[in-house]
Design brief:
The protein is mainly α and about 375 residues long. The protein is built from 17 helices and no strands. It comes from Duganella rivi.
Amino acid sequence: MQQWLPHANGDVLAFLNRTWGRGTPHPIDFYVAKIDYLARFFILIWAGLVPTLALFNYRLGNPGNRSPLPELGLTLLYAFLFYLFLIIFGSEESWYPIEKMLNYTGKPPFQHRVLLLFPAQALLYVAPSLSYLHAYIFSQMVAVFVALWAVKRFSALFIREDLAFVGQFLALLMWAPTIKYYTFYDIAIIAVYALALRFLLTHRLLPYLLVFTIGTLNHELTLFLVGISALVLFGQIKLPKLAGFLALQLACYGAVRVLMFTLLPAKSAWEGGKPALNINLFLHQPTQIVSSLGPLLLWYAIAAFGLRSAPVALRWCVALLPCLAVMTFFVGQLNESRQFDAFIPVGVALMVCAIRAKSTATAPQSQLNPTGYTLAGA
């Protein structure tokens, strides 16, 4: 947006900066940059919102029209918007150098989150002339398409299947404010949790276990799925079987983590000093926490409207949120909203439940019982 100002890098902006600076700690170009950021952000959101609402409203009134082409078009649009958000608002930072990650020389805890390194390395093997950044973007687009498919399949548990595409757009809305710097694993976390929770809530425990195990190669916070599965399955299956299933998950998780520490030795599983850093942020830089977590809190407040109509099993999944908050305080940073990406599928599902409750045309085919959700055959 600076290019719209006359002599933006010359005398006019310098004069305005001096004049403005007498009454504010920031020069005027700071605010110009903020306005530019928000303008680009909301233009991208609007580009996805308009066709999403158009198709959603059309299908509400025409439930028999289920051509896959409009949904395919929206999926491609959402993927393109993911890409634009990534390249416009993300950046490579010194603490997460892509080249080092692809060469397995990253620092804890990043060096053991390897799943999305594989497609990037495959691309570099086929086309060695490409840059590390190109390989990174390619790996993220793989993660984006899997995440969009997984979120749609998860959303279809709670709304008519031909309307489940709205969950994809909601996932984009929740993820977009969290992008700050490039990582190989954040988008894949959404895919892993959406797939794992779909299989868990439909009692497809073998596919769930496969996703859980593979997902641990992407990020170690799959450990929280063990607790979520205990809550969801308690009373649904016999206690000995439940205990055995929980033990099997822990064994798979432990095996993957031991494998990672064996192949890529590290002195620690995470970076220390995070509680002190977060306390300092809370006491001396609270605006950083508010600006980072504020958009998420807004989405969580909207998602809360879906709790009343959500099935019991989905309500149990909300327990993931305090787990992520505690983890962030002890081993993460409260000024990084990306720490909560794993909750995106749950938040999306709750919002889909709220939409279903408000749109009576979507209720008959969803066949969800908000007080006694039966998982068999879902």
